[in-house]
Amino acid sequence: MRKLVCLTVVMWSVVCSGGVSTCLLADDAAESEASLPATLQYDIPSSLDGKSQPVLAWAPDTAKVQKTPLFVFLHSWSSDYTQDNSKWLKACAERGWIWLHPNFRGINQSPQACGSRLARQDILDAIEHACELWQVDRERIYLAGVSGGGHMSLLMAGHHPERFSAISAWVGPTDLAQWHRFHTQDGKPGKYAKMIEKSLLGAPGTSPEIDAEYRDRSPVYHLHQATTLPVSIWAGVEDGHTGSVPVSHSLWAFNAVCRGLQRPEISDLEIQQLVRDRQLQQPTADDMAEDVELGRKIFLRRRAGPSVVTIFDGGHESLPPAAMAWLSRQQRIARAGE
Prior knowledge:
Largest sheet: 10 strands, mixed
Number of strands: 12
Radius of gyration: 19 Å
Helix content: 25-40%
């Protein structure tokens, strides 16, 4: 077993419904209303470079003695493992799943972060360590993330499809070179373009080596390998207009899965219509279907094998109830680390 470097109880809120840590008392009404469990914070050494990496976790008491689903949630682009993702923690605790919130090198503004091999291994290390602490059900190891966490979730799906049971990715950038261009106006890189350059050590086209890094860290170049892994991809149709990631990124990601399965792709015309007009001229029956769990109008829904993409009425956001409901229906043996 890996050595724990430190162990800390982190207060998310007041009520602990059972778990590996001690309940803490409330100090204000807002925390009481949240009804969240206290989480554990601990460090584990990276299996690649040995550097200590922090993780937040929570588990029901029963996870010590019976198989329990593991829910791994990934922080967003400009945050780290301390990000307040309480609505996702609450949804996880309500289902009695183990919660894991790894750091994977923190904010995406350094070469070690932003989907690097080190960052990807941090997530795998955190999962394997959780399997040592609790009785994890390997048929139900779920991964989810929003925005930068959506990017990383899909990157893990492409690089390590055998390690997960299902993945739910929301509004994530999937082609870093294209996203860099979107956030570069009149030759001047904006906030996200600058962060990408810090992480990949240059803009697209700077050198063959840097371009190789862009490909390695962009999910669209790897999702063709996720042919048997259930992947749900979600995006609000207004994103890219009121948000930072155009819906084209989610559609490109789904098309990469389609290529691996040799299934029909979403056409360039349809992608253009959704990006420009925010609607399809000729939607299919699935595109107009109702989804009670999502609770939003759907503009596009397509399936390929066990995977699905949904463009809904919304922006740069996530809806945990829909994600958790879909994940709960997925079972698939996830391979242990070697």
